[in-house]
Structure formats: C-alpha cells, structure tokens
Amino acid sequence: MNASPRYERPNISLIEPNLPGYGIDLFIGGMEGAGDLAELRERNITTVVNCAVNLDFNYAVSPFPEEANPDAIYGIGAVRYYKLGLIDGDGNPETMMLAGFYMLRGALSQKLPERPTYPLREKGNVLVNCRGGRSRSVSLVALFLHIEARAKYPTLDSALDHVRAMRELRRDEWFETPKPVLVNAARRAAEWITLIDSGAAPLALAVQGSRSA
C-alpha cells in the first residue's frame, strides 16, 4: 500500500503550450480531468491519450448512424481516444513505453479521411492522462518532450523536471513521480527511438540477433 500523502493539484495541467512542430497545447491530467467533458471543451482538447490499464472512459455521445441499439456504449465519441494501458509500477513489457511514444506521435500526426465514419477531424489540443496524472502520464510526456523538443529538453531529466513542475508535483514526492521503473523504461525507449529515427535500428537489431544466435 502506498502511504505517501496525496496532495491537491489541478485536474488538468498545461505542460507545453504551442508544442514545437505541432502547434498545439499539451496537457496532463488525472481521471477527474479526463472525465470532465466540459473542461476538455473549454481547453479545446480534442484528443485524449489514456496511459492507465486500470481506468477506462465511455466517451461515446451518440450511436453510429446504422446502429439500432440506443443503449450501446460504443459509437461516435466526444473526443478522439487512444488507450495505452500501462501498469503504474513493475509488470509492463519494456517496449510498452516505446509504443506509447509512437501512439502519442501518431495521435498528433494522423490525417483522417473525409468520410462520415471519421467525424472527429478537428485538430485541437491533447491531454495525456492516467489515474492521478502523476506517474504514467508524466513519464510518457517527458519522453515525448525530450525527443520532439530536444533543443529545449536535451536530457530526459530536464524534461521530467519541467513536467513535474508544470503538473505541480510536490518536490518531496518527485522520488516516486514517476515511479523509477517507468523513468527507466522512458530512458530505454529514448535510446530505441534515437536509433529508429536515425535509421540505424534495423542494423542494430540485426547485430543483436546475430550475437544471440
């Protein structure tokens, strides 16, 4: 059981305004903020990336036009919703943080087709959330800022400190926000992303495979 005190912080915190290369505002929140559609609309948040495996939202606000069941819990959502599903601690495969980075990059970069089945094409701001908005979401957003705004955040630690401060995490809880195992996963993911983006990943994987053969 976690005996650390739970301090008050905003339901949603602005982490990076006008994100370089994307021109949107990037937010972090907990379950209260991610579940408040009025606040999401007020902040022009059109995309939500949920990092928590033990938390879900039903954003469906109307059924698909062809759906005959009015009680269905699926349909057209109020926001574009992406689910990563991390454990807040041990138990995640090492590559899940890497997957989270590319999911977030994809959420920001997707170009949706002009079809009725893709009604939410508006490009607004992005919220990354977990249950409390203090560990899983913090580690993923710090990784993303370090990679996508490297001139401003040359190290993962500089990105982490920025996110912690903007999220209003108390300094006496920084040792567990994010959990160390998630910070380590973000460091490993940063190494992989650097290789992948440089085009060196296939060669590195081939070398690794030959050594293990």
TrEMBL record:
* CDD domains for the chain: DSP (cd14498)
Organism, by scientific name, is Ollibium composti
Protein name in UniProt = Dual specificity protein phosphatase family protein
Source domain of life is: Bacteria
